[in-house]
Amino acid sequence: MKIAVLPGDGIGTEIVAEAIKVLEALDLPFEMETALVGGAAYEAHGHPLPPATLKLAQEADAILFGAVGDWKFDKLERALRPEQAILGLRKHLGLFANFRPAICYEQLVGASSLKPELISGLDILIIRELTGDIYFGQPRGRRTSPDGNFPGAEEAFDTMRYTRPEIERIAHVAFQAARKRSRRVTSVDKANVLETFQFWKDVVTEVGKDYPDVALDHMYVDNAAMQLVRAPKKFDVVVTGNMFGDILSDEAAMLTGSIGMLPSASLNAKNQGLYEPSHGSAPDIAGKGLANPLATILSAAMMLRFSLNQPAAADRIESAVKAVLAQGLRTPDIHSEGTTKVGTMQMGDAVVKALG
Ligand code: NAD
Q: What is the rounded average pLDDT of the residues 256-262?
């Protein structure tokens, strides 16, 4: 089992170090190799995703990714910015399915901005299509408007599009994921207005016929945004396109209180995956030992489950995380009165100890 370790920038190096500690404590036959990515790679090699890093990622069974980015790179041309490394990895590895679980740990119910009764026991999975939609559709650009409300005016445009195979494969991923949970899928669209999403709805419905044991319902994205804060526990698996998924997965993430707790996985058709916390490189707290490593540690658990076929080891990590929370240990982002404040390394050490 080969893991490419790409810590990246800012808190990336600190939190990935803790996840590696946890992986090593499992005593499984991993081969781990580290490479630079993002701003660190740009500074060393002049590109955020150097060929050697890409090759390592392509040859690995899974990639453990920290975070990339720093404000000091904001002035670089777009193609050289740290964030391009993630887009490049998604594209080159064909990572089309993004999994974002939003789980509310009982001990952190108070950290949510919603009432405890709304989120206590929350466990939803947002599956976002990651390589299509308006983010990648061509043509796009700026031009003189040929028609519309202001013909002759300067305008910018993007193209929303999805092919049948793109929708089919993400729908299969969602139905199969639902089979391992409570067999419910909500497909989110905007079929009332957009041709692309009427097609999305039709194709998801067709694929659903292969899964008679899974209940499928459809919801418009505006309603889904509302229901996520009104009654989030009504959802189980949510599947949607790239743009709606981008927005809804961040909304769902915040239901649980802290971004420092949220893992994510992006998978391709071969189950090769990139595993990373949902947050960024947090330059404001980098190097201070304050970052919460749990999202990265939980991403490592997802990696064991989805790409490395080690579900028992994944369970061990997830139980250990619950145990340290039950012990009252908290990094500053989730700290509250009556709990014990710890730093990044102490949190990682506590998880290792709780592995049993
Ligand atoms: P961010 O997620 O890095 O930080 C937002 C806030 O959350 C900050 O106050 C930060 O301190 C806090 N935070 C984030 N992770 C935390 C953790 N593990 N523990 C405790 N607190 C945590 O978002 P941002 O500040 O908007 O962006 C910073 C940089 O990260 C930018 O360069 C951005 O482009 C990049 N970014 C990268 C990724 C990625 O690598 N996948 C994702 C988002 C943003």
A: 83
| Residue range(s) occupied by CATH 3.40.718.10 in the chain | 1-96+268-356, 99-261
> Which residue owns the Cα nearest ligand 1 atom 22?
260
The residue whose CA has the least distance to atom 25 of ligand 1 is 282
Q: Which CATH code of 3.90.180.10, 2.60.40.10, 3.40.50.300, 3.40.718.10 fits the domain covering 1-96+268-356?
A: 3.40.718.10
d(CA 345, CA 296): 13
What is the Å distance from ligand 1's center to 281 Cα? 5
pLDDT digits (tens, 9 = 90+) for 185-199: 999 999 999 999 999
Is the pTM higher than 0.85? The answer reads yes
Helices assigned H by DSSP within 111-182: 116-119, 164-179
Whose structure tokens read 């679980």?
101
> Could you tell me the distance, in angstroms and rounded to a whole number, from the CA of residue 297 to the centre of ligand 1?
16
Let me know if 250 is a catalytic residue. yes
